[in-house]
Specification:
The protein is an alpha/beta fold. Helices cover 33% and strands 20% of the residues. A seven-stranded mixed beta sheet has the order 4-3-2-1-5-6-7. It comes from Methanofervidicoccus abyssi. GO terms for molecular function: homoaconitate hydratase activity.
């Protein structure tokens, strides 16, 4: 599977309160949550994103609280995958559970800038950007099975035969 999209670049230690600030958690509507995606950093982010874009970030992306609204807001904003130097564990798992693809790529910040076109080859575990290829870590095992079906709820329904 190949994912190709425009990069939205962020730094290190992007916490869930900056991804979706607390005052905007009063809804369960994923599209309303998406309208406040990255609102703690860039209030216009959700207006800039196009379907299939990719977030690239530094170390410890998704740190802070365990709110699952953070990856939900990212996914429903149109982002297909998040590539980071590292993830907070709970954010990583929440992303898998809702069907947002988390990819770990050491050194990505040194070769990418905002607006670049990035290609992730999940099968080869490689990222291509600006004529460079970098190895990456993609979800495997049960996490990959969950992602392939679109998230944990869909995976569970499929396993039950619904």
């Amino acid at each position: 599977m190949i994912i190709r999209g425009r990069v939205h670049l962020f730094g290190d230690d992007i916490d869930t309160d900056r991804i979706i600030p607390g005052p905007y958690l009063r809804t369960t509507n994923p599209y309303e949550l998406a309208s406040y995606c990255m609102y703690g950093i860039d209030k216009d982010f959700s207006k800039k994103v196009k379907e299939g874009d990719i977030i690239v970030a530094g170390e410890n992306f998704g740190c802070g609280s365990s709110r699952e609204q953070a990856p939900i807001s990212i996914k429903y904003c149109g982002i297909k995958a998040v590539v980071a130097e590292s993830f907070a564990r709970i954010f990583y798992r929440n992303a898998v559970n809702i069907g947002l693809i988390p990819v770990v790529c050491r050194g990505i910040k040194e070769v990418v800038k905002d607006g670049d076109i990035l290609e992730i080859n999940l099968d080869r575990k490689m990222i291509k950007v600006n004529n460079k290829e970098l190895p990456c870590e993609v979800p495997t095992g049960i996490a990959w099975e969950i992602l392939k079906t679109g998230g944990l709820v869909k995976y569970a329904k499929l396993r039950r035969g619904d």
